[in-house]
Amino acid sequence: MATLGAKLVGMDAVPAVIHYADGGMDGPLELQHVQVDGDTVNAVVHVQAGGTQSLARITGGVDDEELSLEIPTEAVEFDSVEEFLGADDIFETAKTIVDVQTDL
């Protein structure tokens, strides 16, 4: 069976339900721009909190069974999705992801 990180690699621009370690879930949310860099997989996802929609990222190792949902701690403009995904200094982990499910 594929790891959660490897499972995420096969998803891009698809609606998905994200399941968290605390038993909660969100979705369907659209996973966008899944990117693999070495052993790390990242994806952009739109999240809603308090009526405000913003971008977040899912990140972790391709071989990991759990991934992190990370939210930006400050508002910053980016010229590309790659810059957003690579801006490690502005993110904090909001939740631990234990599964991502799609209807594909």
Structure overview:
The chain has 104 residues and is mainly beta. 12% of the residues lie in helices and 55% in strands. The protein has two helices and six strands. The chain has helices at residues 4-9, 81-86, and strands at residues 14-20, 25-37, 40-49, 52-61, 67-72, 91-101. A six-stranded antiparallel β-barrel has the order 1-2-3-4-5-6. β1 and β2 (25-37) form a beta hairpin.
Keywords:
globular; single chain; mainly beta; 12% helix; 104 residues; 6 strands; six-stranded antiparallel barrel
User: What is the gyration radius calculated from CA atoms?
Assistant: 13 Å
Number of helices: 2
Q: Strand sequence of the main sheet, in spatial order?
A: 1-2-3-4-5-6
Helix amount: 10-25%
Low-confidence stretches: none
Structural class of the secondary structure composition? Answer: mainly beta
Ends distance: 17 Å
* Largest β-sheet summary: 6 strands, antiparallel, barrel
Please report which band the strand proportion falls in: under 5%, 5-15%, 15-25%, 25-35%, 35-45% or over 45%: over 45%
Shape: globular
Mean pLDDT across the residues is 86
SSE sequence, one letter per element: HEEEEEHE
- Strand tally is 6
